[in-house]
What does this fold into?
Amino acid sequence: FNALLCTTLADRLDRSSAFGRRVLDWGGASLRDDVLALRCCGAFHAQVRAGAAPRLQALYPPSDLPEPEALWGALAETIGADDEPLTRFLDRPPQTNEVARSAVLLGGFLHIARATGLPLAIYEIGASAGLNLLADRYAYDLGGITWGDPAAAVKIACKWLGNLPPIEVALCIAARAGCDANPLDPSRRDDRERLLAYIWPDQPVRLARTQAALDLAVAAGPRVDAADAGAWVARKLGEPEEPGRVRVLFHSIVWQYLLPPTRDKVQRTIEACTAAATAGRPFAWLRMEPKDRESAALHLTIWPSGAMRQLARVDYHGRWAQWL
It folds into this structure.
């Protein structure tokens, strides 16, 4: 559905509205980095979810895919009626906070637990609503292998292939915290709806899973600070360490969006942590970042040894992981 929506907008959108002018005047060099298409899809989905666009809502899933002419008629009507909120929606960068990526991060956490034999204190940059900070609270179907409490409200299916992580290892997350430049509060309706608007409307399972994860985040309350990642990492990892824990800095599809000065500051803090790491107070850096158009790579480095390893090639949305 979103592909048809984007094609229709590309073919028919003009400068007669503030929304049209904003989209058509967007800097060409930044279209991909700014994910303008996702911003547009999110803007219309938000209006549909709010019940503000009944004609357009009638064409959205689970209805059959509409004809382009019918879709454009409904889009044009929505633009005419809701030009200001649609345009305003474009201003903030998308936050998808794909909770299914937790199935990939879980494998990394299990590797860290086996390598160190210690509880984990996890710190996430680009945490959005903090859903991946709760990776140990979900139930997983990993392609015939299960992990977690089967009664958990959040259930994630991810096909694990290859040289699997140590599923038998006990995982204890003793502390968790995150930061984001614009964090979403799962207890605020506006923030919840913004996050749900970015999910493709023809993926009801993903929508339901994200809603359940948001409910859990309200109850469990992982802390996500509004902060620049560079400053936050320097502050959090500069605090006195708890002995007998491994501190883990992690992120997923975030690094490319950080400004160079922020990346540099995070790197300097990592270097300081690695210099201070010992067997009793190790430090780990787990990251899931783009590899190519089809997949991301999950890398892990643990100090004091400093050996870096690619753990897996993974689907961007957490649907599969090829462990190496």
Observations:
- The CA atoms of residues 126 and 180 lie 5 Å apart.
- DSSP finds eleven helices and twelve strands in the chain.
- The chain has two domains: 2-89, 99-323.
